[in-house]
Amino acid sequence: MRLSNRAIYGLRAIFDLAYHSGGEPTQVREIAERARVPVRFLEQIFLDLKRAGFVESKRGPRGGYRLVADPAALTLAGVFGALEDLPELPDVLVDEVEESAAQVPDVVCQEIFSKMIDLLSEVTVADLIERGEELGFSRQCYEGFTYVI
């Protein structure tokens, strides 16, 4: 099982907005550069993130995307779920009436997938921000101008 580039890049984009934007709109090219994601691909990803209600866009020279979801409430399962289907066992279970040893691997796989979803649901974007700060990565938030006379 493997996460798609779309899911990984989408998570990078959400994290970038939460970590670097300071709540201000950020242009896709800036996010793409920091997150190391192709701009065209990122534009498509942002459309899905916007449909999911995680980001909003603003047009114009000071425009871009802004995170509107609360990082403490936005889970990895939510981000991945907005961009692709979360892992689940295909509907190939043996007939429930007829008990068979063939069901054992199916049940175990379903339990594993369930635990994966639970884990993805426990980790939030706020947790990623905290990890970035613990690792000492600088933030590139726009702080405006300071005028001294």
From TrEMBL:
Species of the source: Lujinxingia vulgaris
Keywords assigned by UniProt, alphabetized: DNA-binding
GO molecular function, one term: DNA binding
UniProt keyword DNA-binding present: yes
Top-level taxon of the source organism: Bacteria
Protein name per the record: Rrf2 family transcriptional regulator
Pfam families in the cross-refs: Rrf2 (PF02082)
Cellular component aspect of the GO annotation: cytosol
